[in-house]
Amino acid sequence: MWLVVVPASHLIASDEAERTRIVGKIAKTFGRITNPTLVVLVLTGLYNASWYLPWIGLLLVYPGLILLAKVILVTALLVLIYLHNVYFGRRIIRLARERRFDELKALRKMSRIVSATNVTLMVIILMLAVMLQIPP
């Protein structure tokens, strides 16, 4: 019987690459669900905006300014989400596959900063949505 000794760093590297591969597959499946959902949310949001503003010129007076700020922030959020997925998602999977874990760690740190920005934008958008429900 042979005893094979595997360095712990090799096991960690293998686990990290496998974990990243699995998360990448889950994210791809999740994307198939979220993309159509985002389209529906944006379209229903535009439809609902017509209830607040009968014509576009009212975006420059209250409560149109709140709606305008919300539209701008939602657009920025969507751009950040897709840039995050395209840039960070693909690069993280590639770095894990190539076992470049130092670069992977640095990239994940930047990815977390973008994710925190996304969450902050979501909270601000939620607050603006609540403000739209408050009578002037």
Can you put this structure into words, describing what you see?
By secondary structure, this protein is mainly alpha-helical. It has one domain (12-133). Helix content is 82%, strand content 0%. The chain contains 3 helices and no strands. α1 packs antiparallel against α2 and α2 (64-97) runs antiparallel to α3. The longest helix is centred in the N-terminal third of the chain and has 45 residues, at 8-52. Mean pLDDT is 84; it is low at 4-11.
Outline the fold blueprint.
Elements: H1 8-52, H2 64-97, H3 101-133
What would the keywords be for this entry?
mainly alpha; 136 residues; elongated; 3 helices
Q: Determine the strand fraction and express it as a percent band.
A: under 5%
How many domains? The number is 1
Detail the poorly predicted runs: 4-11
Give a quick account of the main beta sheet: strands, pairing sense, barrel closure: none
Q: What is the chains' assembly state?
A: single chain
Mean of residue pLDDT? 84
- Find the count of extended strands (DSSP E, 2+ residues): 0
Helix proportion range: over 70%
Number of helices: 3
- The run of helices and strands is HHH
**Helix-strand makeup class:** mainly alpha
Rg of Cα set: 22 Å
Briefly say what this structure is:
The chain is mainly alpha-helical and 136 residues long. It has helices spanning 8-52, 64-97, 101-133. It has one domain.
